[in-house]
Amino acid sequence: MSPDAGPALEPLPAGLAGRVPYPTRRLAAVVGGAAVVVAAAGSLLGALAVDGVLLVLALVDWALAPAPASVGLRRDMNQVIALHVKGEIVWTVTNRSGRRQVVSFADQLAPSLRAGVRRAKVRVPAHGQAEVRTAYRPARRGRFTVEELQVRVEGPLGLAARQRTVRLRHVLRVYPPFRSRADAELRIERARVLEVGLRTAQGRGSGTEFDQLREYTVDDEFKKIDWAATARAGKAIVRTYRAERNQTVITLLDNGRVMAGRVADVPRVEHAMDAVMMLTHVSTRLGDRAGLVAFDAQVQRVVPPGHGRDQLGRVTEAMFELEPALAESDYRSAFAETLARFRRRAMLVVLTDLVEQAVEESLLPALPLIARNHLVVVGAVQDPDVVRWARSAPEDASGAFRKAAAVQALEQRRRAVARLRGLGATVVDAPPGDLAPRLADAYLKVKATGRL
């Protein structure tokens, strides 16, 4: 196998497959060598004779080249992969003829898949197979459709080749990465430390739904003693509680202009998607229902609340093709549609950015719509560069201006947070990597204290 060998394979017009001779690199090398020899001899007739012979040889070689239809080609690759996760593509070339073949192929892979090899040249024995493998690591989310390969089969002299287009349709879905999965599993395990009660991430709190009566132990609180049951049994009996089940957590993912900015070299919406997946995973594993509303100038995706094992997959499937719209988000329309679809009291987690102007002009006026009957949490990711600039000692004039701008931006962010809290919302403003875990902790605290 020779990766990226041979000239680039361009698609042929329909109906010309195998009918047009393609020169090979070997022919180019032979022509170049012959040109040097003829130039040294200084004979025009000799040059014409050599060119004629080479042309005839190339045409004969092309005529003797096997038909591309005698070559079978199969592509094996993932159907679903997470962003920045390494995958593998395997091409299997099958020679159906009775003689050895030299086959080149080029696949129609998007550059953002970052495949190590997109074209290769292999020598396949008679009635045999050859494999070409390459790794790829997607650099962009979304749906990628790969439909065609160009296949070229060389003649016995290696001077000319036949080519055809092979249609092998494959759809690859690149999902957002679930970076906080380990943190999610840790919180689920902590919440299940005791079957009779829910613990928060710090191990405090208890459920609010009655579970059972049992005998008092030294670790129990006096206020949990059931005096009527104690009188009947003649010994101390306590009431135990468990966390309520079938509560509802709905994440409202802002996919508008403010979420296109990059934090830690990742768009803000990517951090928010990680938080959506963590909240969905934790809440559904603990028996609650999770849903999603993604919106910009209009509602783009809705996933009804559910608690099945496949709910995380449904939410991820709804998000993976979303790209931030360069328009202002319409919070009022998104909140109104959420209220129309989901009337039961729920924990609504709004994932956005805390740009003061956007908060004051769009989010704050719409927030009372959902704050009256629902528990509202607003989550946003901080930019660590801005925090660092605000705390650094400037070394020159440009550094001083940058520090002043950073301090002003943080002050505006603090004002936006204060305004949101003034309307009754819980605000989680966290650096990259901490947003999803802190939102999960907020959910666990709400669940443990029975605020829903």
Description:
With 452 residues, this protein is of the alpha/beta class. The protein is built from twelve helices and 20 strands. It folds into three domains: 174 residues, Immunoglobulin-like; 34 residues, no CATH class; 202 residues, Rossmann fold. Strands 1, 2, 4, 6, 7, 9 and 10 form a seven-stranded mixed beta sheet that branches. Strands 17-16-13-18-19-20 form a six-stranded mixed beta sheet, with helices on both faces. Strands 3-5-8 form a three-stranded antiparallel beta sheet, with no helix packed on it. Helix 1 runs antiparallel to helix 2 and helix 3 runs parallel beside helix 12. The radius of gyration is 33 Å and the shape is elongated.
List the helices and strands and how they pair.
Elements: E1 2-3, E2 22-23, H1 25-41, H2 44-64, E3 71-76, E4 80-82, E5 87-95, E6 101-107, E7 119-124, E8 129-136, E9 142-154, E10 160-175, H3 181-191, E11 209-215, H4 227-233, E12 237-242, E13 248-254, E14 262-263, E15 266-267, H5 268-285, E16 289-295, E17 299-306, H6 311-319, H7 331-341, E18 347-351, H8 356-366, H9 368-371, E19 375-381, H10 384-391, H11 397-422, E20 426-430, H12 435-449
Parallel strand pairs: 4-10, 13-16, 13-18, 18-19, 19-20
Antiparallel strand pairs: 1-7, 2-10, 3-5, 5-8, 6-7, 6-9, 9-10, 11-12, 14-15, 16-17
Helix pairs in contact: 1-2, 3-5, 3-12, 5-6, 5-12, 8-11, 10-11
